[in-house]
Amino acid sequence: MRYLPIDQIQRSPYWPVRDRPRPAPDEVDEARRTGIFAPVTVRRSRQALTAFPSYELLDGERIWAIAQEAEIHQVPAIVHERVPDAEARAYVEARYRRALPSDPITQAKAYAAAYAAEGGRAVRGALRQTADKLGMTPARLKHYLNLLDLAPGVQDLVAAGRLAYTKARRLNVLAMSDQARLAERMVNEAWSARRLEHYLRGAQAKASLAHDANIGHLERVLSDATGTRVRFDNLDRDKGELVLTFYSLEQLEGLLERPLLDGATRKQVFD
Question: What is each CA distance from 153 to 145, 149, 156, 179, 191, in whole angstroms?
Answer without folding.
Answer: 16, 11, 5, 8, 17
